[in-house]
Every structure is written in structure tokens, then in C-alpha cells.
Design goal:
Elements lengths: L4 E4 L15 H14 L3 E5 L5 H13 L6 E7 L11 H7 L5 E7 L2 H8 L3 H17 L3 E7 L1 H7 L1 H14 L3 E6 L6 H15 L3 E5 L6 H10 L4 E4 L13 H11 L13 H12 L16 E2 L2 H9 L17 E2 L7 H11 L7 H16 L8 H13 L6 E12 L4 E11 L2 E9 L2 H14 L9 E10 L8 E9 L4 E8 L2 H21 L1
Parallel strand pairs: 1-2, 1-8, 2-3, 3-4, 4-5, 5-6, 6-7, 7-8, 9-10
Antiparallel strand pairs: 11-12, 12-13, 14-15, 15-16
Bound molecules: acetyl coenzyme *A and pyruvic acid.
The site of pyruvic acid has 8 residues, from strand 5.
């Protein structure tokens, strides 16, 4: 879509995020996901600035078969006082193999004088020469006008002259950068209006989120006539990040009726955001607009009662449009409608069972008052629901007793747990060791029931969270434990509450194994 550019800079500006470190293989994997979302441009990095980015462009030419996107190589205008053709960083851009070069240029006079330590005239020559040289080499050139909005305030004429110079030399786009991220939507809109009116250049927008307005600022620029939007997946980026590109395109498509991605690909948004989070190893933010796991999660009973009639009463859009799902959360804020809808989500039609629904609702509230939490522990909720719906709780084994001994020695510590369990008509007494009481109990319990239920060999404890639950009586503080278990394909979370951490953990462990076996049997 050449009349409107969706330009992703996850691999360049996104990678400037603190704590984010990508290998070449990671970058290639992310590029494939971005192409699957249908973005028009993937800024792959700064070839020549470090071996990894140079290698990315080399391998990208051989290994990436992009369907929708073109690669863009990012880099700076030539150094002051050298010819563009002689600048090794410009040569690396020219030789990167990318279809587009995006040149960052100074457009704020203060930066030219203080950071570049050169004259305003020389900076214009750096822009002109570098763009002309790359154009003569057959490259498409976009310009990132760094600190444009601050520069415009201090010296409007010079900021505009930088853009005109780049255009006269053959640049296609002037992406106006709010590099320090200090702008607000109204200001952006006024400046973009003026730039388009005064220069006639094709304007793009690149916003940082330091005022929390990166997406709003990007949309304001589009409203004023910008036809090229830059951003990153999950809003990754330096400091507080860049404009979240998915929120930008979803707003453009769903709220403003602009077709900016190839038809149907917005539905890949949630999958793409999460798949890229897997690669970056940055946990996805659950409250992220459109794609977060909480973006369409409903907790309040009043919301659920209206959603039962029509989900759109409490949603601004159908989550399917961005590939997300509605979820119902069960907690002490649930009403009967929440339980009925949660039941439906789990595959139980409770519409004709109002008494069951009322019992479960009351039980949830009573248990949450004692420290349980079900919104994160769907598996414990489902076991409780099954007990109310079917009259019995799934049970595969019974625990006669358990005991844990931790021994602190001169060298290290040893923990041993013994469980006495009845499973498959047999009584087992098994001792397990571990690097802590929960690990030892988990090991003993799974070994005890493995003969009767071999499926438990596949189960693994993948997450463990402890929280002191103080109900106002300091000495009576209880412990809540959440345990995530997986069978390799799916995972489920169970909750336990007790006077101490081991007791609470044991309850959550038993629920975890029970739920896994029940699902395996199903
Ligand atoms: C707003 C942004 O986020 S732009 C993207 C910024 N990204 C990065 O900086 C990551 C990659 N950068 C790097 O690897 C390095 O900084 C390099 C390889 C580019 C340069 O490294 P060095 O040669 O050691 O220079 P150093 O980083 O200390 O300083 C940057 C130099 O670029 C110059 N420079 C800055 N912006 C520009 C520009 N738009 N055009 C030309 N030169 C520029 C500076 O004046 C400085 O020059 P100097 O070395 O003569 O003082
Ligand atoms: C170019 C860029 O990343 C910026 O100005 O923020």
C-alpha cells in the first residue's frame, strides 16, 4: 500500500529498549512475524553500526521471503566534513541490500550546533549529499527528522529547510520524529498541518511515549495528513517506548475506517504481538490495548450480567477483529451472570440450573473471603464447579498423610517429603527429595500415583507464586499459593490457602494433579 505506509521499527528502535537483546536469529524470526501481520516496511537495524545488524541484512537477503514487507536499513547522514561516498557508515547502508534506506538527520538547530558540533549549512549539506548519493545508487530514501518538533519550536525555518533539502535531493518521506517524546496531540497536529501546507512534502510520523501519548500523537499526525506511521510491536523502545504499532493500525482500521494493512491481517495482531514477546522474552503486558490478555477480560458482576445479553454492551469492539478473545474472570466481584458465562466459557451450560449457579456464586465469595483467588486459578474453579454440577469432585487418589523434613547442614540443605497415598486400589508410601519442601512434596506425590496414573510423568510444575494473605489479623496471616502445571501441551493454574506455605502448596499441588488427570481422562 504505497499511499499509506505502516513502517515497523521493532528491530531498530524497539531493540533500543532497556533489557531487550536480540540475536540475528531472533531478528529474522521477528521479521517473519511482522511480514505475517502485513506491515509495509521492516526497519531491520543499522548496518555497519555493529556486526549483528550487518549480519542481519546479509542473512535477510538469503533467508527471508517476505510477502508484504520491504526491508529498510536505518543509519545517519554522512559525518561532517567527509564525502557521502567516502563515509563507511553510508557505504554500509548502500550495500545492505535493503530496498529502502531511512536516514536520521538533525533538524533541530541546537542539536546541530551542540551534538554534531557543526554549522547549520554543513548539516544541510550532509542531508543533501547523503540523500543524493544514495538516490544515485538506486536506493529509495526516507528521512527521519530527529527532534523535529522541538526544532520547529526553536527555529521553524531551519527545521522546514532540512525537510525541503532532503526532498529536493530525492527523499520520499519526511518522518517527523518526536525523539524526546514530550509532545501532545494538539501540538503535533498543528505542526504537521503547517509542514504539509508550507512545504508540500510527504509527511510521516515517529513518536515516543514519554507523555503517554505516542499512539494519540501518531493518530493526530495522520488526522493532519501524515501518510506514513512508524511504531513498534508492543510499544518497545528507548525509555518509555515507541508508539505501539498495533494500537495505531487497529485504531486506523477499526475506528477511522482506513485500510492500512492487507485485508484480514489485522486478525493476526494478537498472535503476532504474543509471538514477538516470546522471541524478545519480555513478558507481554496484560493490559495492552487490543492485544493484551486483559483487553477483553471482564471481572465485575454488573458487567457480566449485561454481557450475558450482548457482549458489545461492555466492549468497544469485537475482540475477534484483532484475534483476541473475551474472557470472564471469577472473583468475589462475580455475580450469578459471571458464573453462568464462565461456565459457558469452560463448556458447561448452566442457563437452566439457577440453583447451581447461585451455590457456586456463594461459594466463590465465601472462599475468596478466606484467601482463595479464582481469577488466576481457572483449574481450581473448574474442579469446584464440577463438584457443584455433578455432585462429586473428580478424585483419582486420596492422601492419608504427608510429612516434610528439612535438614540444614554445615554444607547445604536437604529436604525430604513422605506421602502416604491410596491410588488405583493400592496404598503407596513414597519418599521424595527436592531442593525445597514443595519440590520434595511434588516429587513424592507424583511418584506415589505414577503407577496407577502414568500420565503424571508428563506433568511439570512451571510456575509457583506465594503471597501472604493478611485478613487484618497480623498473627493470623494466611498464605496463598498459585501453582502452574503443564503437560507439555497446555497449562493450568490451581490455588491453595493454608496457615503456612507448605500446607497451601500441598493443596494447590493436589488440585494441579487432579485437574491434569481429569483433563487427560476426558
Ligand atoms: C534518535 C535515535 O534513536 S537515532 C538511533 C540511535 N541509535 C544508535 O545510536 C545505535 C547505533 N549506534 C552506534 O553503534 C554508534 O553510535 C555508531 C557506530 C553509529 C557511531 O559510533 P562512534 O563512531 O563511536 O560515535 P559516537 O556514538 O560516540 O557518536 C555519534 C557520532 O555520530 C554523529 N551523529 C549523530 N547524529 C548524526 C547524524 N544525524 N548525521 C551524522 N552524524 C551524526 C555525532 O556527532 C557523533 O560524531 P563524533 O563521533 O564525531 O562525535
Ligand atoms: C529516529 C528516531 O528513532 C527518533 O528520532 O526517535
Amino acid at each position: 500500500m504505497d499511499n499509506f505506509h505502516v513502517y515497523d521499527t521493532t528491530l531498530r528502535d524497539g531493540a533500543q529498549q532497556e533489557g531487550l537483546n536480540l540475536t540475528v536469529a531472533d531478528k529474522l524470526a521477528i521479521a517473519r512475524h511482522l511480514d505475517g501481520l502485513g506491515v509495509g516496511f521492516i526497519e531491520g537495524g543499522w548496518p555497519g553500526a555493529n556486526p549483528k545488524d550487518t549480519e542481519f541484512f546479509r542473512r535477510a537477503q538469503q533467508e527471508l521471503q517476505l510477502q508484504h514487507a520491504q526491508l529498510a536499513a536505518f543509519g545517519a547522514t554522512r559525518r561532517a566534513g567527509v564525502k557521502a561516498a567516502d563515509d563507511p557508515l553510508v557505504a554500509a547502508l548502500r550495500d545492505s541490500g535493503a530496498g529502502v534506506v531511512t536516514l536520521v538527520a538533525k533538524s533541530h538547530d541546537r542539536h546541530v550546533e551542540l551534538a554534531l558540533r557543526t554549522t547549520l549549512e554543513e548539516n544541510l549539506a550532509m542531508v543533501r549529499d547523503t540523500v543524493s548519493h544514495l538516490r544515485a545508487e538506486g536506493q529509495r530514501v526516507f528521512l527521519d527528522a530527529e527532534h523535529f518538533f522541538d526544532g520547529y519550536r526553536d527555529n521553524r525555518a531551519y527545521a522546514l529547510e532540512v525537510l525541503s533539502t532532503a526532498f529536493e535531493a530525492g527523499a520520499e518521506i519526511a518522518a517527523l520524529c518526536d525523539t524526546n517524546g514530550g509532545m501532545l496531540p494538539g501540538w503535533i497536529q498543528d505542526v504537521v498541518n503547517d509542514v504539509i501546507e508550507s512545504t508540500g512534502v510527504r509527511v510521516g510520523i515517529h513518536c515516543h511515549n514519554d507523555t503517554g501519548c505516542a499512539v494519540a500523537n501518531t493518530l493526530a499526525a495522520v488526522d493532519a495528513g501524515a501518510t506514513h506511521v512508524q511504531g513498534t510491536i508492543n510499544g518497545y523502545g528507548e525509555r518509555t517506548g515507541n508508539a505501539d504499532l498495533i494500537a495505531v493500525v487497529a485504531n486506523l482500521e477499526l475506528k477511522l475506517g482506513r485500510d492500512v494493512l492487507p485485508a484480514g491481517l489485522l486478525r493476526e495482531a494478537t498472535r503476532t504481538a504474543h509471538a514477538i514477546a516470546e522471541v524478545t522474552n519480555v513478558p507481554p503486558a496484560s493490559r495492552q490495548p487490543y492485544v493484551g490478555s486483559s483487553a477483553f477480560a471482564h471481572k465485575a458482576g454488573l458487567h457480566a450480567s449485561a454481557i450475558k445479553v450482548d457482549p458489545m454492551l461492555y466492549q468497544h469492539m469485537d475482540p475477534i477483529e484483532v484475534g483476541n478473545d473475551m474472557r470472564l474472570l471469577v472473583s468475589d466481584m462475580a455475580g450469578k451472570a459471571s458464573i453462568e458465562l464462565k461456565g459457558r466459557e469452560l463448556g458447561y451450560d448452566l442457563a437452566e440450573h439457577p440453583q447451581t449457579v447461585a451455590r457456586v456464586t456463594a461459594k466463590v465469595k465465601e472462599m475468596e473471603a478466606r484467601g482463595y483467588t479464582f481469577e488466576a486459578a481457572d483449574a481450581s474453579f473448574e474442579l469446584m464447579l464440577l463438584e457443584e454440577v455433578e455432585g462429586t469432585r473428580p478424585s483419582f487418589f486420596t492422601v492419608e498423610s504427608w510429612r516434610v523434613i528439612s535438614e540444614s547442614r554445615a554444607v547445604g540443605e536437604e529436604t525430604e517429603a513422605t506421602v502416604k497415598v491410596h491410588a488405583g486400589g493400592q496404598r503407596y508410601v513414597v519418599t521424595g527429595e527436592g531442593n525445597g519442601p514443595v519440590n520434595a512434596l511434588d516429587s513424592a506425590l507424583r511418584r506415589a500415583i505414577a503407577r496407577a496414573f502414568p500420565a503424571v510423568a508428563e506433568f511439570e510444575l512451571t510456575d509457583y507464586k506465594v503471597r501472604l494473605y493478611d485478613d487484618g489479623h497480623g498473627t493470623d496471616a494466611k498464605t496463598r499459593v498459585l501453582i502452574e502445571t503443564t503437560d507439555g501441551d497446555t497449562s493450568w493454574v490451581t490455588v491453595g490457602v493454608g496457615e503456612n506455605v507448605i500446607q497451601a502448596s500441598f493443596e494447590a499441588l493436589v488440585d494441579g494433579l487432579t485437574f491434569g488427570l481429569w483433563r487427560h481422562q476426558k
